[in-house]
Amino acid sequence: MALAMKQQLTFTDLILFIRDIDSECAVQAGRAVNYSLTLRNWLIGHHITEYEQRGEDRAAYGEKLLQRLSIHLTEQGVSRTEERELRRYRKFYQVYPQIRDSLTPELSEKLLSQSPHEHTVERGDAFPVLIVPGQELLARLSFTHFVELLKCDNPGQQFFYETECMRGNWSVRELRRQIGSLYYERSELSGNKKKLAELAQRNAETAHPKLAIRDPYVFEFLGLKPVEVMSESHLEDQLLDNLQEFLLELGHGFCFEARQKRILIGDNHNFVDLVFYHRILKCHILVELKLEKFGHENIGQLNTYVSWYRHNMMTEGDNPPVGILLCTEKDHALVQYALAGMDNELFVSKYQLELPDKKEIQEFIEKQIRGE
Length: 372
Description:
Layout: H1 11-54, H2 65-75, H3 83-95, H4 105-108, H5 123-126, H6 134-140, H7 143-149, H8 155-168, H9 172-180, H10 183-189, H11 193-202, H12 216-221, H13 226-229, H14 234-249, E1 254-265, E2 268-278, E3 283-290, H15 296-312, E4 322-329, E5 332-338, H16 345-354, H17 358-370
Parallel strand pairs: 3-4
Antiparallel strand pairs: 1-2, 2-3, 4-5
Helix pairs in contact: 1-3, 2-3, 10-11, 14-17
């Protein structure tokens, strides 16, 4: 909006000007953070690769290198340096050598060698035209986009999704969905590739600059805690605050354990709204709050969390975990219990006695929504 052409500034102009400034600065901030994070991870991959090939004492660590490195880096407080992440950074460096050209002179000085390593996967050897310049990649894609692209089976497939993703400004979720729908394979077989591309882009979910900082890689890179960035809204924050207090005050044996508990399932980070341990039932209670009406995907998500807890968090003497799903829509609330793996009738009966009555929770949620 060109205010310089106006002689006077109206109140409406002021609103629009501030809105545009806020939007533009959010875009620039998101790009700057993603740019730095991606370069950081590429440089980590560079140093790991160089050490594996030229390290003076590399033989002392052998196959345990990444495991040992992860332990020490975690102790030093360096975020996202689990063994699987270090392996991902190494592959990122090897698959995207063109990012080297995007380094500032200061960062270039930190390179251990000034030319691509012999083990770097140079896509130009087999596909001379299938290389997107590093500067363009960094400007258009977040590191989480690259995480999805690194799963591609071959350079041609990877290049295809790079270009389609940038052309449509896809969100990470959309990129993941398109890969899962075999868009590349369908394009290879299609007799009308242009028509297929139009259909694929028509309803694609685009990336929103203000949501970029909600990326798990980004907020850990910035030193933020999940609870600071993962809540869907101020209303959800208030509901979770009050719900946590409500369940503890019921006296049913709830012991608070975590909020926005991060769990890693496959390559995806997930967050459980509230986690309790029930001292009478001797099991974990997972609570998920959705500011929407009930959908099958909601209960499916909660059951996934419950199953993960059963396989990864249960210890000797524990009973299977229980999930409580709360869905809201205006003055309506639905409470759904997920009983994953509960085939013990005696335990189910005890669970029904010890956990809060569904109607009790529903009334509480409805009052909170109405502001009573």
